[in-house]
Amino acid sequence: MSSPWKAFLVMGVLAGLLATSGAGAYTLEEFTFEDPAQGTAFRALIEELRCLVCQNESLAASQADLAEDLRKEVYRMFREGKSRDQIVQFLVDRYGDFVLYDPPFKPSTYLLWLGPFVLVGIGAFLLVRTLLVKRRSPATELSDEERRRLQDLLGTESNPVQSNREESDRDQTDRDSPK
Questions:
Q1: Residue 24 banded pLDDT, cuts 50, 70, 90
Q2: 70-88 pLDDT tens trace
Q3: How does pLDDT run across 78-121, given as a tens digit for each residue?
Q4: Per-residue confidence (pLDDT) for residue 163, from 0 to 100
Q5: Neighbours of 33 (CB within 10 A)
Q6: Whole domain around residue 159: which residue ranges?
Q7: What does the alpha-carbon distance between residue 74 and residue 87 come to, in Å, rounded to a whole number?
Q8: Are residues 87 and 149 both part of a single domain?
Q9: Span 28-84, pLDDT tens digits
Q10: Which residues does 138 contact at the CB level (< 8 Å), separation at least 6?
Q11: Can you give the CATH number for the domain in which 76 is found?
Q12: Which residues, at least 6 apart from 60, have a Cβ–Cβ distance to it below 8 Å?
C-alpha cells in the first residue's frame, strides 16, 4: 500500500475512534434509587424536560454539559424528597417555560400556541381573496397585432384551434364516405 493511502487509512481510523469515544460518555445508570418507582419517575421527568443547549433533545438524551448538570440537579432534588411539581417549578423559575416540552397556555405563550393557526388563517384568507379576484377579472383577448406575432413565433398562418377543428372535420368526413 502506498504511503498516502496508509496515512489516509490511519487518519480515518483515528477520526472514527475520536468520534465514537464520547458516544457512551454518560449513562443514566449512575442515577440509582432505593425505590424503583422513584427511579421511573426520575427518568420520566428528565424525558419531559428540554435540554437548554440542544433545544430539540430531552435532558435524558442530551450529552451537553449543561444537560448533565441539570440531570444531577434533578437527581439531587429527587433524593431530597422534593415532588415532581416542586422540581418542575424550580426549573421553570430558573430557566423559564422553555425548559418544558409542553409549555402551559398563558399570556406569555399565546403566540407559541396560537401562531400556527393565525398563519394558516392568513394564508387561507389570501388564497380565497386571490381566487375571487381572478374569477371576477375577465379573460383578455389578444389584439390582432398580438395574434399575428404569436402566429409568427409559432410558425403557423392560421388559428391553431381552427386548424385542428378543420382536420377533425376532414377525418370525420373520410370515415363517413363510402370506400
A1: very low
A2: 999 998 998 898 999 999 9
A3: 889 899 999 999 999 998 888 888 888 889 888 888 999 999 99
A4: 54
A5: 15
A6: 144-176
A7: 7
A8: no
A9: 667 777 778 888 888 888 888 988 888 788 888 888 888 889 999 998 998 898 999
A10: none
A11: 1.10.8.640
A12: 28, 43, 46, 47, 71
SS (H, E, C) the chain: CCHHHHHHHHHHHHHHHHHHHCCCCCCHHHCCCCCHHHHHHHHHHHHHEECCCCCCCECCCCCCHHHHHHHHHHHHHHHCCCCHHHHHHHHHHHHCHHHECCCCCCHHHHHHHHHHHHHHHHHHHHHHHHHHHHHHCCCCCCCHHHHHHHHHHHCCCCCHHHHHHHHHHHHHHHHHCCC
Q: Is 112 domain-assigned?
A: no
Number of domains in the chain: 2
